[in-house]
Amino acid sequence: MESAINALVSGFKAYAGRDGSSDTLSRDEFYRLVSSELPNFIKKADDPAAIDQLMSSLDKNNDGELNFLEFWQLIGQLASKHGRFSQ
């Protein structure tokens, strides 16, 4: 599990900061991350409107960016769905 956490943190950091803050994902950074790294887990990963909607649902402080904790919510949701755990 440690390697999985390391991979998630490294993946987040690899995309965050390209457009601004290295601690957050902008809309474009999030789109690139989802379409490159999660195409089989996110429906319509190549649809910018669908990604905008997904990002809005995760952006709890409505600042237009995703911090790691906001992004982590997505990872938890995807893992729960993939593992077929009840919500």
From TrEMBL:
Keywords: Calcium, Metal-binding, Repeat. This is Protein S100. InterPro entries: EF-hand-dom_pair, EF_Hand_1_Ca_BS, EF_hand_dom, S-100_dom, S100/CaBP7/8-like_CS, S100_Ca-bd_sub. SUPFAM superfamilies: EF-hand. It comes from the Eukaryota. One of its GO terms (cellular component) is extracellular space. Pfam families: S_100. Residues 46-81 form the EF-hand domain. GO terms for molecular function: calcium ion binding; calcium-dependent protein binding; transition metal ion binding.
